[in-house]
Design a protein that fits this description.
about 270 residues, mainly alpha, Ferritin, 2 domains, two-stranded parallel ribbon, 4 strands
Length: about 270
């Protein structure tokens, strides 16, 4: 059950309203990376979750995100307040907010696109959902950071700093939860990947670009357990079998999938 207390999780103070910035804040109210999307995603994942500890975590954070939605909505409403004084100039700035919304917030993003459940990432598999949540918190963090950089009002920046900080708290919690439910981050659900194929890196972007781009190496394609296949399309490389027990590939018709190693240096 839910119970509303008539106090914000963070006290919002706005020195000078800026309707343009209020419109930007709607991105975190009804946008793809906003607080409503986070609240719904985590809460529904929590309802689906069979792990008691993770269920509690998801419901805790999902409920907190509703409190964040209230903070963002209040902040946006305070910045949009001048739009309540309807005149031709304010209405022309943003007809959607001034005329359709009466100078208040609505469930849309900064471009006026309505909120949609398509924003939610819910699979019913706990480890996959936790990975989605880690990414969601990271995306929300960068949006708050950009909003902070676009704002001069001290009270607004403090509220945004609080919200941004909580994203990192949640990100850390979801990472720890993922660690608690799986020892191997590459084990996802039940069917294992095909041996050999899973350890092949396809170097499909080759040559040098007009702006200096070139082939480089890193931990993903320069280690003992990775087989690099250079230019698979140009070398007529094919996967001939991808059964769970064994994978078969061929290169230039000789049955050998191994190709030359990429350059050993790493671009700085």
């Amino acid at each position: 059950m839910y119970h509303h207390i008539k106090k914000l999780m963070f006290t919002v103070r706005v020195g000078e309203s800026d309707p343009r910035f209020g419109n930007m804040l709607l991105e975190q109210f009804g946008g793809a990376n906003g607080e409503l999307a986070a609240a719904m995603q985590y809460s529904i994942q929590g309802i689906n979750c069979d792990d008691p500890a993770c269920k509690d975590l998801l419901m805790d954070i999902g409920t907190e995100e509703l409190s964040h939605l209230e903070v963002v909505g209040t902040l946006a409403r305070m910045h949009l307040k001048p739009m309540k004084k309807l005149n031709i100039d304010t209405a022309a700035e943003d007809p959607l907010i001034a005329i359709a919304g009466g100078g208040g917030v609505s469930l849309c993003n900064s471009m006026g696109n309505a909120w949609t459940a398509d924003y939610l990432k819910i699979t019913g598999e706990l480890d996959v959902d936790l990975r989605s949540n880690i990414a969601a918190e990271a995306r929300a963090k960068i949006v708050y950071e950009r909003l902070i950089n676009l704002c001069d009002d001290r009270g607004t920046k403090e509220a945004l700093q609080f919200l941004m900080t909580r994203e990192i708290t949640h990100l850390k919690a979801f990472m720890q939860a993922l660690d608690s439910v799986t020892n191997d981050k590459l084990v996802i659900v039940q069917i294992p990947p095909t041996p050999r194929i899973v350890d092949q890196f396809y170097n499909t972007s080759t040559g040098e670009g007009d702006e200096g781009a070139e082939d480089t190496t890193g931990p993903w394609n320069n280690c003992d357990d990775i087989e690099v296949i250079n230019s698979p399309a140009l070398s007529e490389f094919q996967v001939t079998s991808a059964t769970p027990k064994a994978g078969k590939t061929k290169l230039n018709g000789n049955g050998n999938g191994r190709s030359r190693k990429p350059k050993s240096r790493t671009k700085q």
